[in-house]
Amino acid sequence: MNIASIISESLLKAGGYEIFTYNLLNALARKGHQVTLYISDREARKNGNFYKQAPFNYRPLPWKSMSVFKRCPSLLRRWFERQQRRHGYDVWQVMGAYPEGELVSNLSGKVPLVLRTHGDDIQAMPEISYGMRLDPVLDKKIRAVLGRMDRVIALTDSVTDELLGLGVPQERIKVIPNGINADHFAKERDIPSCRGGYGIKPDDFLIVTVGRNHPKKGFDLIPTVAAALVRQGMNFKWLVVGQNSEALRPQLKEKQLLDRVRTVPSITPKAENGVLDFEHMPPEELVEIYAMADLFFFPSRIETFGRVLLESMAAGTPVVTTDCLGCRDVVAHGKYGVMVPVDDTDEMIRALATLTRDRKSLQALRKAGLERARQFSWDIVADQYLVLYSSLKESLKTGKEGGTSRQAHTITA
């Protein structure tokens, strides 16, 4: 198949959204399909050498295209129509409702459009000022984009419910989860040595939390939870790893927890010969942190998938998380991890304190998590996308031969 994709961010940011894009397109290309990723002209100038070595093709948008898009979006949309006529793509894999989805919206009815959202383009949580749709103008544009997509990918059943709430018809929603390279996590590692690098003793009970410190992640609850564990006489160490984790230090200092809870800045991937090894993301240093932990704790308030939970499971580390959208799906409502209510610090404390004493339960959770992680290989995920692409291509062909074309479904607030 001749597959086009578009992303507005740099793949070199190497966040979950970018890692997904790279690995999906890489898996599709490995299976023998022609894959082309459209990126901004600025990204092509800045990181062109990286994209030239990628396993798929890339094409830059016109010069200063995003500035043009903001002033006169119809010009850029017509440019994409010309690209479609010139290259004859069988399907467009759109990586985001806005701006990506709006950029290719004129292709609706001409070629199948599959949208994979990244979370903040469809989710909205006013209490923590999270989500593009809090802006009424963007909310209207995103709803219009959703109405013009042939399929919208829901990473979980919970996201399906959210899309239904936005007016996306059930028949246009397809559940396909995120992927992971489980073999990368399952390698044998020298755990005592890994722990020693962070000053963690072999007999210390180690809790790990990974992710960016954003209000949606619930990291602000960690000092309260850790302080309560200390009061209960728990012997533990805790690593909080990720962007802006150091912002927790004033709270940790106030509660006299700096000897128990250590913040670690975001661990960025290292390039070899100018090339990032996306197939073995996250970086080895972060995988070692997952692997050396006794327990992974993720107090999120909202997710589309909760990829870090799956990464922890793949590394053989049991998880405790919240019953929030996205997280509950990964742990299958408690089948593959312990679930507690969102923002309920009492239940979080109880779950962590119980598991620090219950090695038998930890072992059972470890085994269940490893089983769960193996279900999400990139090849399996890519095959699900290919089945979808083929069915959409055939449906569009049949529709055109019958003299009809799909009409956009208008989604209103």
What does this structure look like?
This protein is of the alpha/beta class and 413 residues long. It has two domains: 2-179 and 379-401, Rossmann fold; 182-375, Rossmann fold (3-Layer(aba) Sandwich), CATH 3.40.50. Helices cover 43% and strands 14% of the residues. It contains 17 helices and 13 strands. It has helices spanning 16-30, 41-52, 65-71, 73-87, 97-103, 136-148, 157-165, 182-186, 191-196, 222-231, 249-254, 284-292, 307-314, 327-330, 345-357, 359-373, 378-401; strands spanning 2-6, 34-39, 57-60, 91-94, 113-116, 151-154, 173-175, 205-210, 236-241, 261-264, 295-298, 319-322, 338-340. The strands form two sheets. It has a seven-stranded parallel beta sheet. A six-stranded parallel beta sheet has the order 10-9-8-11-12-13, sandwiched between helices. Strand 2, helix 2 and strand 3 form a beta-alpha-beta unit. Helix 1 packs across helix 17 and helix 5 (97-103) crosses helix 6 (136-148). The chain is globular, with a radius of gyration of 22 Å. Mean pLDDT is 91; it is low at 401-413.
